[in-house]
Amino acid sequence: MLPTVEGGRMRGTSAGYGSGVDSQDTSQTSGGGESLLTVIVALTANGLLAIAKSAAAILTGSAAMVAEAAHSWADTGNEFFLILAERRGGRPRDEAHPRGYGQATYIWSLVAAFGLFSAGAMVSIWHGVTDLLHPSHEESSTFIANYVVLALALALEGTSFLQATRQVRGAAKRLRLHPLRYVDRTSNPTVRAVFLEDLAALIGIALAAAGIGLHQLTGEAAYDAIGSILIGLLLAVVAVFLMRRNMEYLMGEALDPGLRQQVLGRMLAHPQIDRITYLHVEYVGPQRLFVVAAVDLVGDDVESHLALRLRTVEADIETDDLIEDAILTLAPPDEPALTG
Asked: Which residue in 6, 31, 121, 237 has the most C-beta neighbors within 10 A?
């Protein structure tokens, strides 16, 4: 609850917000341990796979394996950006940034998504189209190397995906959402990026295996090239979706109506607040909100005392896990009150 403060912290936490996305998910805030672990697991898996897939692509000349190598190298670079996003976005607010550094998480996540698009999707599509238009007349006799690397990729990517899925399912269950719905709606871009990139990686492995297998069975290298193109298109779809979601948060993502109503209700429960006539809430980072409200305080203090009381109430509200910054003003007496 917002009403009382004990030892500098409010009695109750953001879990009390209940129905809104992110409201019970404060363990995944920028810089949170579980999100960082998810990124590190993905980074380790993709780094190892990038090396193995590149070796297989050089050895066999498979277009699909080249696409898979480009995918893994792009994902490896993306994980570094996502770690940077976690670190930069998780810094505490200061005088220069009174609403914290949470927006940096979206900026670096946007850079990572663009890297997936340019280094992963475009390279895969370009190489596949090139091989389709100008097929090599050399037949690979080392298909087994591709299958071994793809099997290794399935194991490592599967491990990374299980970690991401465990985090997503845990949060989605608390919020009573389908996991994919949570991935779309969460304000945590690193969780969304790792989950979708790992899912795309598993689908990409299946596409690469199908292309290589059809090449081996029919002797037509075109199937291998088509596999590369399909992998590139898959990465492009994921990258564009991630870029769009990060841009929406940078431009001001609309707050979930349920969460906004919960914020209003919690603020109205504060013992010093009599009514609220205006409320603006926006994201300033993963699970970080900026609140502006016009309020009537209880009692009938003189103006100088009201100003001090407003600052005290602001400080109370900012101790909530979700509220990064709060600005309160006095409500005009003729404006209708909002109801929680």
From this structure: 121
